[in-house]
Specification:
Helix content: 10-25%
Shape: elongated
Order of helices and strands: EEEH
Number of helices: 1
Strand order of the largest sheet: 1-2-3
Radius of gyration: 19 Å
């Protein structure tokens, strides 16, 4: 599946900073192109489905509401 995201690019302290506006992911590079390539890789890793190495335990958690 392909999805289009929007990036904001700024230049700070000698680095191009690329920030995705839809998801809070940021990357950087020495050029604008490298910053965008790094952001693309970071987004692909972010959206990669997790693979469990251990089976998680599912447990109930009780909380008290309105106790003030």
């Amino acid at each position: 599946m392909t999805r289009t995201m929007t990036a904001s690019i700024t230049f700070e302290d000698g680095w191009y900073i690329a920030q995705c506006l839809e998801v809070d992911i940021v990357s950087q590079g020495e050029t604008e192109t490298l910053a965008l390539e790094n952001l693309k890789e970071a987004l692909e890793l972010y959206f990669e489905p997790p693979t469990a190495t251990l089976t998680p335990r599912i447990v109930p958690v009780e909380i008290v509401l309105g106790a003030a």
